[in-house]
């Protein structure tokens, strides 16, 4: 009888590699976090270019890591408008002129261009969140804890209860029970995290709403990555983590949820927690 948990060990090893580094850099401050983001977006861009069938050693594939790193550098200097303008301009140029080279695996320049926004926006968002001196640490921790809880809860509930498939054409292993389990887990962990980090003035309904929105976006990001790999006919985004896939496979939920968290933080204003 096949095991319900065939990839549990793989997930545990991935978490053991990524989680401590993320938490340490979140805790150390904006500079350490920005350095981690630079490494992360560079590797994500490399994976994306390869996934699209291009090479990062020459144009147009080389443009993707250069653009996301340059935008991140502008974000570190708080030049948010320039960072956004660079990503949009890079997207437009690659969309128009990033035609595939004479390589059999190369896909359209539109996919290559999309990676600039997909990775670049998330990188800027995460730098922006941690850059808030007063609330940055708590906000980034809240985001990651909620997304991790959504992922773990969806996995455990889906494997334990099974049931109707969520999107069989996109990801045949995902179920409605998993989606609900992920949502409930994210809300519970979000409430606990908010209560521990900033219990004063806690509004339960607002915490539930923010955690639920981030969890839904995280699950959509996971589904998008699954659809993308089917579209490109690959099992993993890369072999960067030996035997466990690539960073795009592990950070798909964060890539989807981070821009929304940053937008909420910008609307609330500096020094405000996402759940307040």
Describe this entry's structure for a reader.
- The structure is a single chain.
- The chain has helices at 8-28, 30-51, 63-76, 80-97, 109-131, 136-161, 176-197, 204-232, 247-268, and strands spanning 165-167, 171-175.
- The longest helix has 29 residues, at 204-232.
- The protein has one domain.
- It is mainly α.
- Strand 1 (165-167) and strand 2 form a beta hairpin.
- It has a two-stranded antiparallel sheet.
Rg estimate, integer Å: 19 Å
N-to-C terminal Cα separation, in Å?
48 Å
Strand arrangement in the largest pleated sheet: 1-2
Query: Can you tell me the residue ranges where pLDDT is under 50 for at least 5 consecutive residues?
Result: none
SSE inventory with pairings:
Elements: H1 8-28, H2 30-51, H3 63-76, H4 80-97, H5 109-131, H6 136-161, E1 165-167, E2 171-175, H7 176-197, H8 204-232, H9 247-268
Antiparallel strand pairs: 1-2
Provide a concise account of the structure shown.
This protein is mainly α. The protein has helices at 8-28, 30-51, 63-76, 80-97, 109-131, 136-161, 176-197, 204-232, 247-268; strands spanning 165-167, 171-175. It has a two-stranded antiparallel sheet.
Jot down its keywords.
276 residues, two-stranded antiparallel sheet, 2 strands
């Amino acid at each position: 009888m096949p095991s319900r948990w065939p990839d549990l060990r793989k997930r545990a090893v991935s978490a053991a590699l990524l989680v401590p580094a993320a938490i340490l850099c979140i805790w150390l401050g904006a500079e350490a976090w920005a350095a981690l983001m630079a490494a992360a977006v560079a590797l994500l861009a490399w994976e994306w270019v390869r996934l699209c069938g291009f090479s990062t050693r020459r144009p147009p594939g080389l443009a993707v890591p250069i653009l996301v790193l340059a935008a991140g550098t502008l974000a570190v200097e708080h030049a948010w408008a320039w960072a956004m303008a660079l990503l949009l301009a890079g997207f437009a140029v690659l969309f128009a002129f990033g035609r595939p080279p004479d390589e059999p695996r190369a896909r359209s320049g539109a996919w290559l261009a999309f990676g600039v926004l997909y990775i670049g926006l998330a990188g800027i968002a995460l730098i922006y969140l941690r850059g808030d001196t007063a609330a940055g640490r708590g906000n980034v921790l809240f985001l990651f804890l909620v997304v991790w809880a959504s992922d773990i809860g969806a996995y455990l509930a889906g494997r334990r209860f099974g049931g109707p498939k969520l999107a069989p054409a996109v990801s045949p292993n995902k179920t409605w029970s998993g989606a609900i389990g992920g949502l409930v887990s994210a809300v519970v962990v979000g409430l606990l995290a908010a209560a521990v980090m900033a219990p004063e003035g806690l509004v339960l309904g607002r915490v539930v709403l923010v955690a639920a929105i981030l969890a839904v976006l995280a699950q959509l990001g996971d589904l998008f990555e699954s659809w993308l790999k089917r579209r490109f006919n690959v099992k993993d985004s890369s072999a960067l983590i030996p035997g466990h896939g690539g960073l795009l496979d592990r950070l798909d939920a964060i890539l989807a949820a981070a821009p929304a968290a940053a937008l909420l933080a910008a609307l609330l204003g500096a020094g405000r927690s996402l759940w307040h």
